[in-house]
Design goal:
It is a single chain. The protein is α+β, with helices and mostly antiparallel strands and 66 residues long. 45% of the residues lie in helices and 17% in strands. It contains three helices and three strands; from the N terminus they run βααββα. It has helices spanning 10-17, 21-31, 47-57; strands at residues 7-8, 36-39, 42-46. The protein has a three-stranded antiparallel sheet with strand order 1-3-2. Strand 2 (36-39) and strand 3 form a beta hairpin. Helix 1 (10-17) crosses helix 2 (21-31). The longest helix has 11 residues, at 21-31. It starts with 6 loop residues before the first strand and ends in a 9-residue tail after the last helix.
C-alpha cells in the first residue's frame, strides 16, 4: 500500500459499486483486495486496490447480449 493511499469503508465501496453492504466483504475477498481490520467493526480497504479490482472486473456489454 502506498503510504498516501486512502482507506475506504464498506459503505463507500457498496455505494461505489451499487451493491448491498453485506455483499462487499465476499466480493472484495473474491477480487483479492487486501483489508485492514482495526477492530471487528472497523474494516477498511485501500481505495487504489478497490478501484483497480473494479476496473479489472469490468466487462462491457457485448452486442450479442441484447
Amino acid at each position: 500500500m502506498d503510504e498516501q493511499d486512502e482507506l475506504v469503508t464498506i459503505a463507500w465501496i457498496a455505494k461505489r459499486m451499487g451493491i448491498a453492504r453485506p455483499s462487499v466483504t465476499k466480493i472484495m475477498r473474491a477480487m483479492g483486495v487486501p483489508r485492514y481490520e482495526f477492530t471487528s467493526k472497523c474494516v477498511r480497504y485501500p481505495k487504489s486496490a478497490v478501484e483497480a479490482a473494479i476496473a479489472a472486473s469490468y466487462r462491457p456489454a457485448s452486442a450479442g447480449n441484447e
